[in-house]
Amino acid sequence: MSKIENADPSLNRQRFDFATAFREFGIARIIILAFLLALFVLALVKGLDVPGLLTDSLTRIGMNGTLILAMLPAVVCGVGMNFGLPLGILCGLLGGILTINWGLVGWAGLIVSLLISIPIAVVVGLLYHAVLDRVRGEEMMVGTYLAYAAVFGMSIFWMLAPIRNPKLIYAVGGKGLRQTISMTETFGKVLNDFLQFKIGNVTVPTGLLLFWLLLCLLVYFFLRSKTGLAMLATGSNPSYATSSGINVGNMKRIGVVMSTVLGALGIIVFSQSYGFIQLYTAPQSAAFPAIAAILIGGATLRKASISNVIIGAVLFQTLLTIAPPVTQALMEGSEISEIARVMISNGMILYALTRATGGR
Amino acid sequence: MVGNRLETVPSQRKQGKLSGIFAQFGVPIFFTVLCVASIIVSDLDINYLIGELLSRLGRNLFIVLSLLIPVTAGIGLNFGIVVGAMSGQIALIIITFLQLKGLLGFVTAMAVSVPISVLFGYIVGSIFNKAKGREMITGMIMGFFANGVYQLLFLMLIGTLIPVNMNSPVAQQIMLSNGVGLRNTIDLSNIYYSLDNVFAKLFNWNGIIWTDSLGPWRVPLGAFFMSLLLCILITFLMKTKLGQNFRAIGQDMAIAEVSGIKVDKVRITAVIYSTVLAAWGQLIFLQNLGSLNTFNAHEQVGMFSVAALLVGGASVKRANIWNAIAGVLLFHTLFVVSPLAGQKLFGEPQIGEWFRQLISYSVIAVALAMHAIQNRKR
Lengths: 360, 378
Hints:
- The complex is a heterodimer.
- Chain A is mainly α.
- Chain A contains 15 helices and four strands.
- Chain A has helices at 18-25, 27-45, 50-69, 71-76, 85-101, 106-134, 139-160, 190-193, 206-224, 226-236, 238-243, 248-274, 287-296, 306-330, 336-355, and strands at residues 180-182, 197-199, 202-204, 276-278.
- In chain A, the strands form two sheets. A two-stranded antiparallel ribbon of chain A has the order 1-4.
- The longest helix of chain A has 29 residues, at 106-134.
- Chain A is globular and about 60 Å long.
- The two termini of chain A are 25 Å apart.
- Mean pLDDT of chain A is 85; it is low at 1-7 and 9-13.
- By secondary structure, chain B is mainly α.
- Chain B has one domain (26-190, 217-377).
- Chain B has 16 helices and four strands.
- Chain B has helices at 2-13, 17-42, 46-65, 68-72, 81-98, 102-130, 135-157, 169-174, 198-202, 221-237, 241-251, 253-258, 263-289, 301-311, 321-346, 349-377; strands at 185-187, 213-214, 217-218, 291-293.
- In chain B, the strands form two sheets. Chain B has a two-stranded antiparallel ribbon.
- In chain B, helix 11 crosses helix 13 and helix 14 (301-311) crosses helix 15.
- Chain B is globular and about 70 Å long.
- Chain A binds chain B through residues 83, 131, 134-138, 140-142, 144-146, 148-149, 152-153, 155-156, 159-160, 176, 288, 333-336, 338-340, 342-343, 346-347, 349-350, 353-356, 360, and chain B through 127, 130-131, 133-134, 136-138, 140-142, 144-145, 147-149, 151-152, 155-156, 178, 346, 348, 350-351, 354-355, 357-358, 361-362, 364-365, 368-369, 371-373, 375-376.
């Protein structure tokens, strides 16, 4: 089992080869990087608030990072992109709502909400895996529509939930959770403000980025552990994995559960940074930007690594942050950046779908 | 382990007749019960429901029928019909600019939409060929992507790259006031009911009066006629050589390839048919509605049509005209009734609406899951 070939070709490389490194980094990423630099130059020329843009970019990278990381275990264990990410997100939202309902604030609120959403997400992840295991080959479609159905099922729940906390429910009628719930009085921006410092005019949300990188590191070490390597083997060659005595089903179960848990943690981090918990139909299409980001980072439907997550998060989120103000400054009242976002993210997913080879 | 699984399959097939019927018609039966229950709960005026259903059947059946050919050809549920719907809308915007009216306008729009949707269908089909086994998710993402292209065309390029004479009255009506991009809603009163009313208008002579109203209900005779024509055409098409090819590759692509069918080409043909029909279907839908929601009208088309077909008892591999008709009737009954039922049961119409969406997404998920499970057993 220790001899998994092609697990990481970069380990076998003897000396640094510029051409190979270039190819591995990928032409798509170079184009996007060049585009980003061009946007920054334009922002400087147009006299926009570049430090402010950088601050926003860093915040958004941290906000979305964990949701993007959630894709990794699912890809690695061979399930493919987790289009059912909203399932995990709903668990996280439930955890957040319960915590606020109990009146916990500050760090206590954040930690409790993270802790209670984990068991919920584990249970949901196990159920989700039980479904995915039976629908091999259609995981992406079934995941998408299962998640859509769950979002609307939970919408009914949010409306009928037996919660009477006036901070959470509609002021009029006294029934049903609000569409957006402010977190400023509870645990909004707790991570963002932790160890926050300034370089010039750029504010670095240290806690937020640390939390994300810590999770990345944990997943990285997990993938180097015995179980992690078994998962990698399951994803790259299931029959080989079976013949070397790995319980393939179990590995997929771990991957799906991890992905769901990371989705739950991800939305709590996202919400505390955003300052609001968004309920009802908000999580419906949350999976697509996360998938697009990891694909932009160089992943495929069958292979992904931590570096794909980090590169993807940085490139995609920076692009999403700085493109609108810059294009707005260039062409007044234009919606080109929103259109470009739709085309880039879905174009990446479409490209990955047509390119993936190997079994179904 | 594999051997075991193979042995269990025939015994399962030999189960009683009743469970066989339920396996095939389970979903429609479930929905009939659900619809009847909702109608009873919501205490709805039956005349209103029937009138509503007739008009919804007229405007939605055609586009649901456009899904049948790809299912037969083994491509599955073609979520790419969103692209077809877009080409229909492009044609509609063109004839609005040309200020064509009534049936002439409608027929021109149908004609104009053909080359556009053939081109798009070809592109969609080629992409499907590169993503065999993943056509449905690819089609769905393609719909999202095409939406971006569509917005680029009608928000950015029109008025800049495509010159528009802003002094003409049409342009002032449908373009944004700064001269770039279309308005959010476009009035289609020029072709409103142009197809639905066609019999009442054309044949109103010699004492024979064709009307489009039957008792208390308005009947979109023209749309029904078109759908009927399409049903006949599809039945006929399936008996031709091309139809045989569709069915052959739907059964088994590898065997079809060996027996000399150019699988990729036939698959593209199937998608082109579907895309053209979807474009026409969207035209029928919009002439009944009378106004075009420029940037959203096509978004839900794929989901609604697929859900309707599945509700009618179709599966990813097997769908016929009756599934489409039953599906549209049941799905849209729920559409009309569920907000009212939600209002009655919970005092909140939104809950009924969510419940309907929960059900329709679940139906798609369950149908796809059943398909995958059957595939694995094989």
